[in-house]
Amino acid sequence: MARAIMLQGTGSDVGKTVLVAGLCRLAANRGLTVRPFKPQNMSNNAAVADDGGEIGRAQWLQSLAARTPSSVHMNPVLLKPQSENGSQIIVQGRVFGQAKGRDYQRLKPQLLGAVLESFEKVAAGADLVIVEGAGSPAEINLRAGDIANMGFATRAGVPVVLVGDIDRGGVIASLVGTHAILEDDDRAMIAGYIINKFRGDVSLFDDGIRAIEGFTGWPCFGVVPWLPGAARLPAEDSVVLERLARGGARALKIAVPVLPRIANFDDLDPLRTEPDVELVFVRSGERIPADAGLVVLPGSKSTISDLADLRAEGWDRDLQAHVRRGGRVIGICGGYQMLGRMVHDPLGIEGGTLETPGLGLLDIETEMAPEKTVRNSQARSTEYDAPLAGYQIHLGITRGPDCDRPSAIIDGAPDGALSADGRIMGTYLHGLFGSDAYRARLLQSFGLSGERRNYRESVDQALDEVASGLEKHLDPRWLAGLVG
């Protein structure tokens, strides 16, 4: 069995995903066969693994960092929150079922076997496995049947490093409180801790480190500052959307309505890196900016519910006004379905609403169907005759006159739709903005220079920067034991 270490956080969004990615890249750069693993993830940002099936987008990024093919076994349980049906449960890449929160708690013990089986598959042939926890082990109300944190660590015998986020404040209390609240067997799994997202002079926290050690006996494995490279990596959780918008006026403003069940919003990350683009995430209670040149409707885990919320915000009227002013709209996956005349759900897959009017910007209709399309795809844009590479994860079949003008050819078949004037476009292909030639030609159509930039290369460079930062700031003796 490979060596393994598990990073757990004192709370959500403490930076575990980036730390795991950085450690994977650091180990890979030292010649180790390293693989990431996350027993349970809750996210509507999904990816199609190289062996088929869905995993969390974060584990896809971590596999990229590890320079190893992604696998459904790297994230054996993926929860995708949706509307009144609770969450869709993906087990080893395939739809397992749906459950509300309380029902899922009863299901977890049944899923532990799949989690441990996947861990063995990931560990086979590896030198090192770096495991990411979910939420916090201090959520002792969820400890019974846990598969995401200490329930996994104790069963698999994987030592734990706690990660505390000093930027949000209270890091000493969060670490000491975690020590105090854990049961003895769980506490014994913790080898030490890392302080993350520190700003300023690290020596100012020396007394804090001594205090934590005095209360817990745990060693500190390093104080990691804010790492600039981390900001260039795709974000996993929608809670970070508040921080993603770029400030300052630029030549092209692109507006993105943030709906409650937004999915795969990392589609937008390549646009965020463009110097002439101002990406504006429109939150609840805000208006879609009148000076936006382009509005992007991203994916949704529940198209019908998000359409209702879009109307409740008045964004349907904003979109109509945007189009009357000559603005353009791109809809991706669920956003594409919203652009049509009607969305039908005769089987109630998304809930109790069996059909709802769409925005009427494309002459198409969508019918939800139980079969799920999940695959990586090669494509070509019909608008710009540019190569595309991405993936599809969607329910539903879309038809209508505007489909006679497909926006892309995916795996040899027509996909999506274009309006007669070419200003409204929809597609089921995630990742189209990450295709450098397409993104350049899209920006050129707005009068920008559209200089071609290698987005994937920029992500790869950011991973190397994060790895270098961790090598500099983590305890070299601990690192030597881990990746030496």
UniProtKB/TrEMBL annotation:
Residues 253-437 form the CobB/CobQ-like glutamine amidotransferase domain. Pathway: Cofactor biosynthesis; adenosylcobalamin biosynthesis. SUPFAM superfamilies: Class I glutamine amidotransferase-like, P-loop containing nucleoside triphosphate hydrolases. InterPro entries: Class_I_gatase-like (IPR029062), CobQ/CobB/MinD/ParA_Nub-bd_dom (IPR002586), CobQ_GATase1 (IPR033949), CobQ_N (IPR047045), CobQ_synth (IPR004459), GATase_3 (IPR011698), P-loop_NTPase (IPR027417). The active site is at 333 (nucleophile), 430. The keyword Iron-sulfur does not apply. The keyword Cell wall biogenesis/degradation does not apply. Keywords: Cobalamin biosynthesis, Glutamine amidotransferase. Residues 5-237 form the CobQ/CobB/MinD/ParA nucleotide binding domain. It comes from the Bacteria. Belongs to the CobB/CobQ family. CobQ subfamily. Catalyzes amidations at positions B, D, E, and G on adenosylcobyrinic A,C-diamide. NH(2) groups are provided by glutamine, and one molecule of ATP is hydrogenolyzed for each amidation. HAMAP family: CobQ. This is Cobyric acid synthase. It comes from Rhizobium indicum.
